Amino acid sequence: MNKILVWDWPTRIGHWLMAASFVIAYATGDSEEWRLVHVMAGGTLAGLVLFRLVWGVAGSRHARFGSFLRSPLAAWQYLSALARGRPEHYAGHNPAGAWAIVGLLGLGLAATASGWPVYQEMGGEWLEEFHEVVVNGMLLVVLLHLAGVLVGSLAHRENLARAMLTGWKRGDPAEAISGARVWALPVLLACAGLAGWYLSR
Ligand code: HEM
Known about the structure:
Layout: E1 2-5, H1 9-28, H2 35-58, H3 65-68, H4 72-83, H5 95-119, H6 125-155, H7 160-166, E2 168-171, H8 185-199
Antiparallel strand pairs: 1-2
Helix pairs in contact: 1-2, 2-5, 2-8, 4-5, 5-6
Bound molecules: protoporphyrin IX containing FE (HEM).
Residues 11, 14-15, 18-19, 22-23, 52, 63, 93-94, 97, 101, 104-105, 142, 145-146, 149, 160-161, 164 line the site of protoporphyrin IX containing FE (HEM).
């Protein structure tokens, strides 16, 4: 197998900004003093998720939802093969990881959608509690995601985290993306920055 470009720039930068926003928002969630930072990080996360939803349709091949969203049965079959030590290798996301991604994007949006009204003192106590449940659910999926990345990296003898940094993976040249789409980076950064600023006003 050759080294091929799989992840475009917006997918990679969006991923690491999303991870950083989640960590910052989670770490500052209980503090009055850091409230503004918390809300900015949550808003940034929402902007990144919204961009990712559009990029899932308009992005490069392996970033598109159509290329990696599979049925729960396909995810189960992938996990069974993994347990038997013979998982299929995917140039993009594997079918089980894809479900974690759906969970992370959905919970990321739900976290901001429930947290923002709390910040604006619009919701009652129940909304605050709901926000906490969503955020802790997201932490759980993040931990599952990290375990999946570790197990997948070991099973395929391939550093998946490094691939999410560099964009390169092993694969068939026919599966490579045609370009790194660097032109879309300003759009990604604008979405993240504007959402972070707007929601924390
Ligand atoms: C802390 C919060 C994190 C969140 C919310 C998060 C979220 C996501 C999302 C949404 C994707 C899909 C990427 C896309 O197609 O756009 C993804 C993929 C990925 N993430 Fe994370 N991530 C987090 C942390 C991490 C960390 C710390 C690592 C590294 C150890 C990591 C490694 C990866 C890798 C390697 C992939 C690609 C998996 C594959 O090859 O299919 N993530 N993550």
